[in-house]
From TrEMBL:
Residues 247-457 form the Histidine kinase domain. Residues 214-241 form a coiled coil. This is histidine kinase. It comes from the Bacteria.
Length: 460
């Protein structure tokens, strides 16, 4: 019964039974009222014999009362209360029920009370005579026949309700299987076939359901499968291309490394032209080697998980600033370390060094390209939930095209000849810390990148 149709069968049966129970309560009250009215009518008919003949034999009177199922009959006619028929009452009258002005709530209350009272009682019942043959009629009777009749009626109603609920649930069960379960199983079958071979376009579902909701689900699944198949094909092509690029980069790096050794000797040449051209050649080869190494490092995707430890961020920033100052070719560019002395963060020292180094180097290269005086600063602060590190410069800002693919590998390069891997790798390292790296601001006044590292529950 864990299937959808099985559970639907059980729920339908339960709800139909619940509805029948709600119907049963007023129904049993109605049955009780009809039973008592029938006794009153039979008692009235029995009293008519006395009206026809003032003197009745005791045996006939007893037979009339037995046929009516009562002990005595009182009829009020013309404001006169008359005891029409009577016999000895075995016990004291315990309850009186007036059916003339009884509301539905009173009838339901009295019927429920009688159904759950097993003891026999002598009760008085008052009602209006049929055919307006008087002001009222009153009888006394035992409660056992009433309760037995109500119990028998109730059992028959419950049995009938159970049969109706089973039949109704069975029809609904079959309807659900045809209308819902089979189409859903068909969709699931498509999903399983597609999952086993997602590159096979034949596994893509063809919407054919006539149910609006199911057809919408099939169309959404078809769109998802189509997009995923195309993405898998593109990914496979990129993987093949990446493998080829990695092989080329590996061999090219070896060739360039050998060429780098030869340029070291060329720099020592006394030829003025060679001496003037050698540094440019060295720089070009160095950039090419760096590009090959970055491509290979990104292709391996083997960045280890960060080893978090507490460290003084100013020391890391100072190492970056010192290294970049040595690479400065323009004395007009200033690099400053504004990180507070006492700021301690939780991070991987090597990885956070690489992130800050990438951002500072990008800023230095941007300022060097603009050939204008500028300033690069590394600043950090401690917030309530994280540490904030900002690397800002006074350079020309990032062009709109570079901002669109800023963190996309091989597309986010800003300077000419750049690979666009630096920011992509940096973002990956920051995410490994549970933080985020984003472009805070850029424009003619400069560019600011911000790193946010979560503090978590650990305090220092």
């Amino acid at each position: 019964m864990n299937s959808l149709s099985g559970r639907f069968l059980i729920l339908t049966t339960v709800f139909v039974m619940l509805a029948e129970v709600l119907i049963f309560v007023p129904s049993i009250a109605r049955f009780r009222e009809d039973f008592l009215l029938n006794r009153l009518e039979r008692a009235q008919i029995a009293s008519l014999a006395l009206l026809a003949d003032d003197m009745l034999a005791e045996e006939l009177e007893a037979e009339l009362l037995a046929n009516a199922g009562v002990y005595n009959v009182v009829l009020r006619r013309d404001e006169v209360r008359q005891l029409m028929l009577s016999s000895p009452i075995p016990d004291q009258i315990t309850k009186t029920y007036d059916l003339r002005d009884a509301s539905a709530w009173i009838l339901i209350r009295d019927a429920t009370s009688r159904l759950f009272t097993p003891e026999n009682e002598v009760i008085r019942v008052i009602g209006a005579p049929v055919k307006d043959a008087g002001l009222l009629i009153e009888v006394t009777m035992d409660s056992d026949p009433l309760r037995m009749a109500m119990t028998d009626y109730g059992l028959r109603i419950l049995g009938l309700s159970f049969v109706i609920s089973i039949i109704t649930a069975s029809f609904l069960f079959l309807a659900v299987r045809v209308v819902l379960v089979r189409p859903i199983k068909s969709v699931v079958g498509y999903m399983q076939r597609y999952a086993s071979a997602p590159e096979d376009a034949r596994g893509i579902i063809s919407p054919n359901s006539k149910v609006t909701e199911l057809r919408e689900a099939e169309e959404a699944l078809q769109m998802l499968q189509t997009d995923l198949t195309q993405a898998l094909k593109q990914r496979e092509r990129l993987a093949q291309l990446g493998g080829a690029v990695a092989k080329v980069s590996h061999d090219l790096r070896n060739i360039l490394t050998s060429a780098q050794l030869f340029t070291d000797r060329i720099e020592a040449s006394n030829d003025p032209l060679v001496a003037r051209m050698a540094p440019k050649l060295v720089n070009s080869i160095t950039r090419a080697v760096s590009l090959c190494e970055s491509t290979l490092a990104f292709g391996r995707a083997e960045e280890p998980a960060p080893t978090l430890t507490k460290l003084r961020l100013r020391d890391i920033a100072e190492d970056v600033v010192s290294s970049e100052r040595l690479a400065l070719a323009d004395a007009c560019v200033e690099i400053v370390n504004d990180v507070p002395e006492d700021l301690v963060v939780r991070a991987d020292p090597e990885q956070i060094f690489r992130v800050i180094m990438n951002l500072v180097r990008n800023a230095r290269q941007a300022l060097s390209t603009s050939r204008k005086p500028g300033r690069i600063s590394v600043y950090a602060s401690e917030q309530e939930s994280d540490w904030c590190i900002e690397i800002s410069d006074t350079g020309p800002g990032l062009p709109p095209k570079a901002q669109e693919n800023l963190f996309t590998p091989f597309q986010g390069g800003v300077r000419k000849g750049g690979s666009g891997l630096g920011l992509a790798i940096s973002q990956e390292l920051v995410r490994g810390h549970g933080g985020e790296l984003f472009l805070k601001d850029t424009g003619p006044e400069g560019t600011t990148f911000e790193i946010r590292l979560p503090r978590g529950e650990m305090t220092f």
